[in-house]
Task: structure prediction
Amino acid sequence: MAYFLVRSLLILAFLILIPPLLGEFWAYQLGLYFIYGLAALGIGLAWGQAGILPLGQGMFVAIAAYVTAHGLLALGSSPIAYLALPAACVLVAVLAFAFAALVFRGRFEQGPSFSLMTLALTLAAFQVANGWSRVTGGFNGLRNIPGLPGLDGFLDLYYLIAILLGLSIAAVDYLLHAPIGVLWRATADNERRLAFLGYDVAVIKAAAFAVASGLAGLAGALYAPQQNLVTPDLAGFAFSGDLVIFAAVGGRATVLGPVIGAIVVGVLSAELRDRFPWWEIGIALFFIVVVLRLPGGLMTLFVPLRRLSFTRTVTRARSVAPGKPRIATSLSVAFEDVRVRVGDVTILDGLSVRTGEEAVLCVIGPNGAGKTSTLNVMTGMLPRRGGRIVIDGADVLRPEPAIVASKGVARKFQTPSVFPKLTIDENLAVALWAGRWRGFDLLRSGLFGWTSPLLEEMRRRFQFLDDGTRPASALSHGERQILELTMALITEPRMLLLDEPCAGLSHEETTAVIDAIQWARGELNLRVIIIEHDMELVRRLADRVVVLHQGRFLADGSVEEVQRNPEVRAVYVGGSR
Amino acid sequence: MEALLFTQGLNVVFEALILAMLVLGLAVVMGLLNVLNIAHGEFIMIGAYAAYIVQRAGLPYWLAIPAAALVCGVIGLVVERCLIRPLHYEPFETLLATWGLGLLLRKCVELGFGRGYRSVEIPIGGSVSLFGESYPAYRLVLMVVAALVLASLFVWYRRAPTGARIRAMVGNPVLAEAVGIRTRELARNTFITGTALAGVAGVMVAPLTPVEPFMGLTFIVNSFFALVVGGMGTVAGLFAGATIIGGLQSVLSAAVSPTSAYLAMLLISILFLWQRPRGLFPRP
Result:
């Protein structure tokens, strides 16, 4: 925290000291680049952290600029005019949140379609701004917008812009180091895992986009009094593109990168514009070189410096995470005549099966029997063509990962699904926070110190979990399996779905994992459903075995019963049925 | 009234065919290689400038077609070698790089020819009388040429061994390489074909539009959203997208205003991106 304050104050002091050093002309120029930097700062947050590339931030700058311009034109020199700034900002952020939450709802893809939607929106906004002359002044824009009351000259306004930029940088810095920042990076990394932990991914992503757009709004609100002119060009394709370029050139993954990108490109353009007719070619080449050779942007150049200064080891005060309200009984699930088809392929063909008194249910069957698909349709990853799925006595009409997770179902995938770019500690923390955070918890860095008895026990059993600063991508396949299992367990579910949990594990690891599963089963009064091929494992774990074949229920019973069953034998030995 | 409808219908067909021609290069690059070539419009622009230069030099207009294909193909070769391949054909990275490329090409042309509008004269003047209605001859010729180019390319893609190799590469690059298809050369040639086709499309539309460095922006927007609506990587998608976007533009521009036609296109594209992001006829 002290470190954060020192850094923020240094940046602020630097920004305020510029005009006495460089003079008033530069104060005006830099003021404009700082405004661009504010919008780019937001792009860095949405794109570099949450993985959402906004191609139309110019639209939000423009909306806020028009709103502020009207506010200033109407209120003139009354101090109330200042209210136009936050009003424009909040309006834009709310619009962005509503739009993004609507689009992201119920969808898991990091494809470019959201980016293209923002691009289409800004193209439309440009047309509207040009055509709606009564409000926007049309092609010529709104002119003679008064400055902010009480601020004389460029220098006063410069200080306001510099202070707001310094505060915005500090705010973004704070957010990225708070739990919400980890969740944003987790979204970019593995959205599906986040949803399966029970997070509302759409809201998390929309929040990132709203903060980014709020910053674009702040830029627009300051642009109006700084330039005294607002034209439709702000909503143009080119300006939105420039903002993305600033963020990419400076370094989208860092807080300061996008701001530095805006200032560097701005100053370079201002210096080169009059001297060389080909300056824009230089900027374009510069941008291409950055994309090719310096994907981390200019900030990569500072990485060696950072190694000198950033050697901080934060030891967080440990505290026990608040408990989850627990229901003593384990969760039941029933499939009734469930049908799944994808294209021409029938995957589940009227599957009816239900959990009973048993604690550990093993699902077996030859390849293509529909074992994994059963879990997929139950957790909303495959659409169902017919039948009913009843979880905990309630019909689930439209299963979605987060909804199923909130009922107390945790899932471990066949190929380990963790957050590869996050550290082990962050992976565990994201799982631990799930369902436990309340209100504004996600802004409190105290959450990083949370732990739970279950987590401590898993750390005791699997030593590598203690090496918390290692990124998950550096783990071996087996360690990733165990990390994912731990993440699933510490959400303290009522039902655990495991898809070949011991695939790729060594003999010792397999034994340790089975021990851990059995211990957690007793601890949490948990129901476990395991898909498994390894009959040795099934024999050790299963209370009851269900056999699937060609998308249908074939047989069930104890391991011995199933093994004696002639139908099951026929299927496995290759006889026809 | 009937005659008016007939002309209007012909206009819709014309818009759809021309848009299909303009989209073609992008459809090849984006649909088959997954490269979101934002500089596609600039290749069209360069093709249009090639037409302008050929016409100014007093050479026959049709010579512009090989000239534009050559120029755009060579630029495409350099771009593939220096930008697209080093970025491993990654959609996001190439999107950014071609964004910068578009900026670069616009500025280079601006430096060479200035910002002003150039006009290319219509090489085939006069009009043809069709069922008592006169229709510009050049437009008819364009429709025939566009239809021929599109049809022959699709037959080639479906029938020729190279077409099969491309489909194999698109379906499964690793397996394609394993069975001996030289995917690197194939991808390069596909990319060059895409940029050369953009150049040819530029020659075709040059007489119908003011030629200036920024003309590519309108084309990329229309082409892009036509592909979004139609779906990537399929012939049906290309035609569906071009017909819907081109037809809509044509009808709404005539009936209401060009601005509302443009806004309607954007609205439809947003709806598609939201509810059906893979378009009407996506590659399976």
